[in-house]
Design goal:
Radius of gyration: 20 Å
Oligomer: single chain
Distance between the termini: 40 Å
Number of strands: 8
Order of helices and strands: HHEEEHHHEHEEHEE
Helix content: 25-40%
Strand content: 15-25%
Mean pLDDT: 77
Number of helices: 7
Structural class: alpha+beta
Shape: flat
Largest sheet: 5 strands, mixed
Length: 224
Amino acid sequence: MENASGAPDTLLDAIRYFADPDVSLSFVADLRWPDGVTCPVCAGKEVSFLSTRRIWKCKACKKQFSVKVGTIFEDSPIGLDKWLPALWMLANCRNGMSSYELARALGVTQKTAWFMLHRIRLAMQTGTFQTLSGTVEVDETYIGGKARNVHADKRAERIIGTGGAGKTVVMGLLERHGEGSASTVRTLVVEDTRRKTLAPRVREHVVPGSELDTGVAPLKRTPR
């Protein structure tokens, strides 16, 4: 059963509703492009829809793209018929949800459910399903007061790194949009500045194939 707005009322309704691939596609497309489909590569608005493959082709840059490209759904074989009920469940669960509960509800493995919950929570934190792409600058800094102004017990819990004793490490990602356009910026509090800590954050927030500018030499965010 659906409510007046057309949205499912129960989990069973959500599973049935989003089982239709055309419904799932339209739902995500409307969320992502409320003013009409736009090419994620060149931002062109002249696109044609290839119904047999459920993808679009940009008439300007000739690139083909799906509704998942540049979102938390990309880089994953999981279909929208699983992603959207999972999103419905997390949005309607007041007491939180474990990966085991989601796995049982959707009929997926616990590992898959954990991955989905992680991605959805990331989207809720950033306020968007889209990830960063193109040329993305990545850097980190230390923020906070002097260690002597903090209680000794708290000082012991703070991160100690090069030039950052007693401070919080903040990682910043900036997507360049070109001259005359505002850039997209995201900031994250991280445990430290080690590669094994920062690399997973880059994989979460940056589309594979993007150019990474770390202030040393441009790198490519390659698919896993």
